[in-house]
Amino acid sequence: MVDASQAAGNVLTAVSNGDLTPIEATRAMGLIDSYRRTLELTEIEHRLQALEHRDA
């Protein structure tokens, strides 16, 4: 799986190469950011559950 910084770099490269318009890149970056936040929230939830089970 490609990490978010690599994905963002790939989007910027695509714009530089003319493969994506800046508007398309903005939308792609929004998707990348949403996915990144989802992954972070999932990780936080797993950590919280582990702490709750450990202290129970």
Textual characterization of the structure:
This protein is mainly alpha-helical. It has one domain (about 5-55). The protein contains two helices and no strands. The protein has helices spanning about 5-15, 20-55. Helix 1 (about 5-15) packs antiparallel against helix 2 (about 20-55). The relative contact order is 0.10. The mean pLDDT is about 95.
The percent range for helix content is: over 70%
Helix segment tally: 2
Q: What number is the mean pLDDT?
A: 93
Oligomer: single chain
Give the strand content.
under 5%
The structure class reads: mainly alpha
Main sheet characteristics: none
Quick overview of this protein structure:
This protein has 56 residues and is mainly alpha-helical.
